[in-house]
Write a structure and sequence with these properties.
homodimer, alpha+beta, Butyryl-CoA Dehydrogenase, subunit A, domain 2, Butyryl-CoA Dehydrogenase, subunit A, domain 3, 5-stranded mixed barrel, two-stranded antiparallel sheet, 19 helices, globular
Chain lengths: 594, 594
C-alpha cells in the first residue's frame, strides 16, 4: 500500500473556503471563539496520529477478530491504538465542557472522523458512544446518566447499538427481546441480538449496550418497544463490578470489515436500565440512527479517498503501453498508465466522489451544528428540515459511491488490484457493508421519497432547493450553475410526478425510490461541485499562488457535470416507467427457469 | 445456500426456441445428425453431475488452495470431482471424433460450461486445454501435437496459458522470458510468469503450459514473441518422465476465486517446444484469447444466475415489513420481501442479465460453430465478422453485468448477504476478477471501439446490425422492436460521431470507449430480449400450456427496455462530452489534496 496522507489542504478548502465555516462558527454562541487556526491545528495534530498509528493498521484489520468462549480479541495493534487515542482525549472531543469534553462542534468531530475512518474497521469499534450519548443526556434519569456518560465521554468505556434480531432487521416491530421489571426498579433483559458492531472486544474494561426490547405486556409492533442501557459489567459507585448477563455467543465471518467484531449477543436475565419512557424506544433510537447514518455516508467518502490515493499513485508509476497520441515517457519502456483516457475517467470519478462526498458531509456537519447550538429557532428549524431531507441521501448515495469508487480503484490496478498486497481489494470488501447496514439503500430510498418528500409535500426538499436556486440565480451566466439549475428543476418535476402517481398506487413510491435517491445524490453533489468551481474561479481571478489546486477543482467539476451527472437521465426514465413493470410478475414467475 | 438447479427449461428456450439451434445444427454437415433430443439428454446428464457433485463444492472453494514447497493442494473435493468428470469423458466433449473426442459442437460445450461455471473456481482449473488446443492442431508439428493433444483431449492432463509477467500484463511487448535454442531442436525457457491460473495443482499427473517467450536475438516489442509448450513433467513415449524446469514459486492471496490457484511460475532452463513459427506467438495467442474471452463473459452469466437463484429464493421466504398496498401474507408476522417493488427491481435486473447474457452467449456459440464447421465461406466470413465485433462486448459487458448482479444478490439479503453463510458474498468476490483478467474492461473497450469499429470502418458492426435491422423491419408494429430500432440507430450515429472525432484526436477513442462498450452491451442484450419477447408472444398466441413461463419472458423484456436500457442515455451523453474533460488535468493535479 501507498501511505495514506490526510487531505488537509482539501479540508481547508472544503470547510473554510467553500462552506464558510469561519462565519458559521461565529454565528453559534457556543463555538464563536473557535478560530480557523485552532480548527486546522487540531486537524494537523489528529492527522499525525491517524497517519502514524491508525491507518497503518488498516491491513491488520483483515486478520479479523478472534472469538474464544465469549472473549473477542481484535487485530494486532488495534487495542493499543485505541488506548493511545483515548488517553490523548480524542474520544471526548465533541462533548460539552461541563460533561468533561473539549466542547468542539460535531462538524469538527465529523471532519476528524474522515481521517480515522480510512481504517473503518477500527473506527467502527469506538463510535457508537458518541451517537448514543444524546439518549443518556435527553432521556435517562440523572442517576443512570451519571453511571454511564462520564466513562463514555472519556473513552474509558465504549457503547453499542443493539437493534437487530435474527428474524428482524428493517422491521423492528417484530422484535422479541423481553424486559421484565425487577424489584429494584431496573429490568431483566432476555433475548438474542445479532449484527452487533463491537458487541464484545478488548478495547475497554466495560461496554454499554443500548438495547431495544419489549417490556412484558407492552403492545405488539413498533409502539411497544423501549430503550435500555445494559452494561457488560455491572457498575457500583462508578466502578466496574460483577459481570452482567450478556455474553457474545459468536462473531460473524464476513466479506470484509473483518477487524470490526460483528457479534451475536445473548442477553440472559441481564440487568437493564430503562432510558426514557416505556414504549418510546424507537424515537430515542432514531436520534442515534440519524447521526449513524451520516456517519455511514462518511464511510463511503473514506473508502473513496483511500482507494483514490492508492489508484492515483499507482497510475503515475505503473508503466504499460503507450499513449495513443505518442509516447509521454519516451525514455522508459512504456508510459505511465495515467496517460490513458479511460484510466483518467476512473480516477476522476473517484476524485469527484471523494471530494464531492466530503463537501456533502461538511454541509451536513454545518446543519448538525446549527441544530445543536443555534439560538435562533428559525435557523434550527431550517437546518432540521434540510437534515431530514439530506440524511437518507447522504447515507445511501455516499455509501453507493464509496463502493463504486473502491471498485474503480481495483480496476486501475488491473489484475494486481485483485490480490491482497495493495489493500485496494480489502478497501472494496470493507466498503460493501455500507449500503447494507444502518438501513439498506432501499430503506433509505423509501424514507426519502415516501416520508421526506411525498408525505411532507416536499417541504424539506424545498428548504434545501432554496439554497440551490439562490446560487443559480446569483450566477446565471456560469455554465455549471445553468446546468445545475436544469437538473434541479427536473428533480422537482420528478418529485411532483411521482408524488401524484403515488396517490393512486402506493407502490409507485417503492418502484421509483431507488432511482429517485440516486438522482437526488447526483443532483446534491452537483450543487457542491458548482459551488466549488465558483470558489476556484474566484481564487484564480484574485491571482492565487495555488492555481493548479483550484484549476483541478474546476476541471473535476466539469468532468462531474459532463460525465457523472449524465447518469441522472437514465434514472429519470427508469423512475417514470412506473410500478407495473415490477409488480406485474407473479411471485412464481421469478423461478421458472429449471 | 439454496441448492443450485441447472436452468434446463431456459436452456431449451434459449437454444432451441429462440436461437433456432435445430436449424443451425442441420446447416452444418459435421453436426447435422445432432438432434435437439440428444442435446437435451446430454444437458440433463451433465446437470445431474453438476448439481450433485460440482456446485455443492462451491463454498469449499473459499477454503483456498494451499501451497507448500511448490506443491499446490486444491480445496476439499475439487480433485475427486475432476477425476470423476474426466473419467466420464466430459473433457473430450467438443473435440472431433478423430482426436478421440465426442465430436460435439463448441456451442454445446459452452452451454454445459454455464452449469459447471457456477463453481467458477473449479471450472477455471480445467478449461485452458480446450482453449489452447487449436494452437496444437494448427501450429505444432505432428510430433509435438501427438505428445500433448491426446492426453489433453481425455483430460488426463490439463493446460495453462502463461502470458503475464510482473512488469507486463496488457503490454505483452515488454515481456522478458527468454528462450534459448537447444541442440535437440527444442528450447530452454527462463523467466517468471505471474497470475497463471491452474499453474500448479493436484488434479492431474501432468500440466502443459502454453508460454509466450522471446527467442534470443528476436526483435523487441510484440513482433519478437513466440509460443511454446512446456510440460511440467517431460514426456517420453507418451508417458510422464522426469520433472521439467518449471516450478510454482507461490500462489496469490486473492479477493475471491480462492479455489482457483493463481500461480507465480518460475521457468528455469525448462525444456520447451516451439509451436508454429518463431516470432508469431501473439497471433497464436489471440486465437486462444478469443475463446477465453467469450468464456469470461460466460463467467458473468454464471455469477448472475447463481446470485439470482439465491436471491429469488430468499426474497420469497424472508418475512420483513408489509407491502405498501396492504398485507400479502396476513396470517404471518410480515410479508415476504418479494412484495416490495425495490426488491423486485433488483431481482428483475439479475434475471434480465442472467437470461440476457445466456442469449448473448448462445448467439456467440452459433457463430463459433459456423466458423468451425460451416462449408460456406460466406457464412464463415459473416460469422467471423460478428464474432470479432461481439467478443469484446461479451467479455466486458457480461463480466460487468455479472458483478452488478452478484452485488444485487447481496443487497436482496440485506446484512445477511455480507456474511459467509449464504455464499452470495463469495459469489460477488469471485465475480469481481472477471472484469480484470483476459483483458480489463478498458482494454476490451479500446479493442471494440478502436480496432473493431473505427479502424474497420464499422464493417464488423454492420454485419451484426444487419440482423437487428432485419428483426425490426419484420416487426415494425411491436413496441419493443420499435424501441430497439431507435437505440440501434443511436448506436450507429454515436459510432460515426466518435469515429469522426478520433481522426483529429486519437484520445477521443479512449475517452469514449468505456461508455461506448457499455452502450453496446445494453443494445446487444436489447436485441435478444426483443427476440425473446416476440417468441413468447407467438407461443402464447399459439395457446401454450406454459403461459407463466412465456409471460415472464415478456415482462422481463419490458422491464429491461423500461429500466435497464435507459442507462444508455447517460452513456451517450458521457461519450459525446469529449476527451478534454479527461486529458485537461495535468498529472500532478491528481494529487494536490494533502
Amino acid at each position: 500500500m501507498y501511505e495514506y496522507k490526510a487531505p488537509l489542504r482539501d479540508f481547508e478548502f472544503t470547510y473554510f473556503e467553500l462552506m464558510e465555516y469561519e462565519d458559521h462558527l461565529k454565528s453559534l454562541p457556543k463555538y464563536k471563539d473557535l478560530t480557523p487556526e485552532t480548527w486546522k491545528a487540531i486537524l494537523e495534530e489528529y492527522a499525525k496520529l491517524v497517519e502514524g498509528e491508525i491507518v497503518p493498521l488498516f491491513q491488520n484489520g483483515d486478520q479479523g477478530c478472534k472469538w474464544e468462549e465469549g472473549v473477542v480479541t481484535t487485530p494486532t495493534g488495534f487495542r493499543e491504538a485505541y488506548q493511545r487515542y483515548a488517553e490523548a482525549g480524542w474520544q471526548s472531543m465533541a462533548y460539552d465542557e461541563e460533561l468533561g469534553g473539549m466542547g468542539l462542534p460535531e462538524s469538527l468531530y465529523i471532519n476528524t472522523m474522515e481521517m480515522r475512518g480510512v481504517n473503518w474497521a477500527w473506527t467502527s469499534m469506538i463510535g457508537f458512544g458518541k451517537a448514543a450519548s444524546p439518549i443518556l443526556m435527553d432521556n435517562a434519569t440523572p442517576e443512570i446518566r451519571d453511571m454511564f456518560l462520564p466513562k463514555i465521554v472519556t473513552g474509558e468505556w465504549v457503547a453499542t447499538m443493539c437493534l437487530t434480531e435474527p428474524h428482524c432487521g428493517t422491521d423492528l416491530g417484530m422484535l422479541r427481546t423481553k424486559a421484565e421489571p425487577a424489584a429494584d426498579g431496573t429490568y431483566r433483559l432476555t433475548g438474542t441480538k445479532i449484527f452487533i458492531t463491537a458487541g464484545e472486544h478488548d478495547f475497554t474494561d466495560n461496554i454499554v449496550h443500548f438495547v431495544l426490547a419489549r417490556i412484558e405486556g407492552a403492545p405488539g409492533g413498533t409502539s411497544g418497544i423501549s430503550m435500555f442501557a445494559v452494561p457488560k459489567f455491572n457498575v457500583e459507585n462508578g466502578e466496574v463490578a460483577d459481570r452482567n448477563g450478556v455474553v457474545c455467543g459468536s462473531i460473524e465471518s464476513k466479506m470484509g470489515l473483518k477487524g470490526s467484531a460483528t457479534c451475536v449477543m445473548n442477553f440472559d436475565d441481564a440487568k437493564a436500565y430503562l432510558l426514557g419512557e416505556p414504549n418510546k424506544g424507537l424515537q430515542a433510537m432514531f436520534a442515534m440512527m440519524n447521526s449513524a447514518r451520516i456517519g455511514t455516508g462518511l464511510q463511503g467518502v473514506c473508502h473513496a479517498e483511500l482507494g483514490y490515493q492508492q489508484a492515483a499513485h499507482y497510475a503515475r508509476e505503473r508503466l504499460q503501453s503507450r499513449s495513443l497520441t505518442g509516447p509521454k515517457n519516451p525514455d522508459g519502456p512504456a508510459d505511465p498508465i495515467i496517460v490513458h483516457p479511460d484510466v483518467r475517467r476512473m480516477l476522476l470519478t473517484q476524485k469527484a466522489f471523494a471530494e464531492g462526498g466530503r463537501m456533502f458531509v461538511a454541509y451536513c456537519g454545518k446543519l448538525v451544528d446549527r441544530v445543536n447550538a443555534s439560538d435562533d429557532p428559525e435557523v434550527v428549524a431550517n437546518a432540521q428540515a434540510k437534515l431530514a431531507f439530506l440524511t437518507p441521501i447522504a447515507k445511501a448515495f455516499l455509501s453507493e459511491a464509496g463502493v463504486e469508487s473502491a471498485s474503480l480503484a481495483i480496476q486501475c490496478f488491473g489484475g494486481h488490484g485483485y490480490i491482497k498486497e495493495w489493500g485496494v481489494e480489502q478497501n472494496f470488501r470493507d466498503s460493501r457493508i455500507a449500503t447494507l447496514y444502518e438501513g439498506t439503500t432501499g430503506i433509505q430510498a423509501l424514507d426519502l421519497l415516501g416520508r421526506k418528500v411525498v408525505a411532507a409535500n416536499r417541504a424539506f426538499m424545498d428548504a434545501f432547493v432554496a439554497d440551490v436556486e439562490k446560487l443559480c440565480e446569483e450566477n446565471q451566466d456560469y455554465p455549471l450553475t445553468q446546468r445545475l439549475s436544469a437538473v434541479v428543476h427536473r428533480w422537482q418535476e420528478l418529485s411532483e410526478i411521482i408524488g401524484g402517481k403515488s396517490t393512486k398506487n402506493p407502490d409507485e413510491i417503492g418502484a421509483a425510490s431507488f432511482d429517485y435517491i440516486m438522482f437526488s445524490g447526483y443532483a446534491v453533489i452537483a450543487y457542491y461541485w458548482a459551488r466549488a468551481a465558483l470558489v476556484a474561479e474566484q481564487k484564480i481571478a484574485e491571482g492565487t499562488s495555488e492555481k493548479p489546486f483550484y484549476d483541478a477543482k474546476i476541471k473535476t467539476a466539469t468532468f462531474y457535470f459532463d460525465r457523472i451527472l449524465a447518469r441522472t437521465e437514465g434514472h429519470a426514465t427508469a423512475m417514470l416507467s412506473g410500478a407495473d413493470n415490477l409488480m406485474g410478475m407473479e411471485d412464481d414467475q421469478f423461478l421458472l427457469q429449471f
